[in-house]
Amino acid sequence: MGNTVLMRGETVTAFTQELFQKAGMSEPDAKYHAECLVNTNYWGIDSHGVIRVPAYFKRMLNGAINTNPQIKVVRGEGCLEVLDVDAAAGFIGGRAGMERAMDHAAVSGIAACGVINSNHFGAGALYARMAAERGMIGIAMTNVKPLIVAPGASVPVTGNNPIAFGIPTYGEFPFVLDMSLSVVAGGKLTLAIKKKEKIPMDWATDKNGRPTDDPQAAFDGYLLPMGGHKGLGLSYVVDILSGLITGGVFSKDMKSMYANPKDPSLTGHFFIAMDISKIISKEQMKERMAQFKDQLKATPMWQEGAQMLLPGEIEYRKEQERRQNGLPIPVTTYEELAELKKEYDIQAPLTIIQE
């Protein structure tokens, strides 16, 4: 057996749904949460996919994640509101926030919704895509406990606070740009640890601020900002929108899901939805986005065989491939799931299609 096993996405979804229901989550919420994780794997964002299942499950069991939250509006109204999601799973709180923003945008053209008292919400693309699928432009962001060290600083000053954009194209795939503001997301360190692989030296530092290729030392240390001061500044903006103006927590007041496994993370999110149908028809948008894509594709490339790709295209191609061939799951994750299956008497199978 190598570092990974291949599994069907449907198999992993059914297993994860049943597991989360065991923790007290309703069937619809458990199904949605499981589908989010598997979709993330389909897109090739393995660091935010199925490898997180055991950690989320344990946090549900010990109450860090509230499996039956009472979500309510606590500030604002109409096109600018704040939801307190009652320590919900970030996926459930994130869905509520983006749906709220979209519902108001359908009336006013543009709306924003902040979310407080939440947990880790996975890949920002999940929520940006929700808007694109509804014919809207979506922007999703979340704050994270400080992990990024600034030049000259001996401790981290801000999180790798991700921001994602989703734009409908009405073509094969939506335009989706999803990026954390560190050189890489912390989940990639987790994945490298599980796969027992080294990392590039410019990804992160150890706890003393020294560059390292050891993913465990990096995980125990700090991340480096993308683009130097540019990524650093954008990270501050995401924290201000997601936690400061909403009345939630920001910067050092958040809690790590790993260092504080029994406590809600107190994470904040911020969602913006724009109903572009009020200024451009679906037919015009499709035509103009096709023109935009064609212009990019026509760019001359100096390297033979290279081509320009639209944001979201790599994920689209990866999804086509993985739906056909299966999802590569780290062996260590598979073994964790197998243990949970046995311990909690999960009936859904964990069938491997190839080792």
UniProtKB/TrEMBL annotation:
Keywords: Oxidoreductase. It holds the Pfam family Ldh_2. GO terms for molecular function: oxidoreductase activity. It comes from the Bacteria. Signal peptide: none annotated. InterPro entries: Mal/L-sulf/L-lact_DH-like_ah, Mal/L-sulf/L-lact_DH-like_NADP, Mal/L-sulfo/L-lacto_DH-like_sf, Malate/L-lactate_DH-like. Gene3D superfamilies: 1.10.1530.10, Hypothetical oxidoreductase yiak, domain 2. The keyword Signal does not apply. The keyword Ribosomal protein does not apply. Belongs to the LDH2/MDH2 oxidoreductase family. PANTHER family: MALATE DEHYDROGENASE, OXIDOREDUCTASE-RELATED. This is Malate dehydrogenase.
